[in-house]
Amino acid sequence: LSQMADKLGRKFPVLEHYVANKSQIRKQLSLDLKLREGKVKTVLTATAYGARASQNPAHAIPAEIGEESAKELYMHPIYAEIKEEISSAVTFILGNHKLNHRELVNDHGRQLIYLIKGVKPKVEDIPRHTKISHLLQGVEAEALQAAVKTCASKVILLQHDGFSTSEPVDPQMLNRVVY
Length: 179
Hints:
It contains 9 helices and 2 strands. With 179 residues, it is mainly alpha-helical. Helix 3 (22-33) crosses helix 4.
């Protein structure tokens, strides 16, 4: 989200701080909430993709970490600050993303296909979490494609959110290629 907003000309300092310090922030939340870091990463990712601060045990965050931990998470000042800035960034990105012939097309060139009772709604009638998810998936697909293309001879396994290589790759070089 931070890089998407930056490309559109706006900075979100809380998100930039999170991106630069995600390991430490996840660790702090993990310690404070007594959750595994993997769970913290999952709920932060879900938040970026539009998960609501819900108490409903069937919703993304309580389903992942439990109702009590979800309540604690929502009240945690670090999470609250990140969530608020995510919301602002999503509003900014969706308000400034250029439509292509009145269609929402992500950076990977894919048009959002969304139907309500078999009818295609106007873009403004599609839920915002659906729209931002579509845009994020396009950015992730482009980033993964650029990274894999750059080190194709070393890639041994593609995964849903990354890849494994036969030897280490320079992360700074990947950052330059992707961003």
